[in-house]
Amino acid sequence: MGKRPNPEAQAQHVLNDLGLDSVPVNVERVAKLRGAKVRYSPFDEELSGMIHIKEGMPIILVNSLHHPNRQRFTIAHEVGHLELHRDMITAEVHVDKSFAIEFRGLRRDQQSGLGTVEVEIQANRFGAALLMPARILESELEGKQFDIDDEAPLEKIARKFKVSKQALEYRIRNLGLTAG
Ligand SMILES: [Zn+2]
Hints:
binds zinc ion
């Protein structure tokens, strides 16, 4: 393996490359512009999505029964695999279960056949950085007396970025934008 992936920088690079600098990020368009097909299917609840490269064409499958915000995160996560782990998804179909629920990494019992925890953490970081670009989120929070336990402003910002409140909270903590 070459140099260690930097999901934050690579997500920002993709956005810069496509000239996208506003939110909500049209993540399906990002996937398409990076050469992937996006398809929706009614999967079991715990299955978020999957990605595979078939004859050179990346195909992302998304659970059509999930909340739209969760579908957006799934697509962003899969684009992360496409950008960071191309060899892995060329070799075999990559299936994602429940990653959006347990952001801090997959539990032991969920790991089998899902690739390494490290790979999932990288794809989640990429997904979060793609949907909630650091610069835009920072300017959104700037000058606000921001308290992570105050629900109303969080919900407003989550709506603006079209992400779940949980994803936003995790992103804010991860960027060190709150003492909470
Ligand atoms: Zn994954």
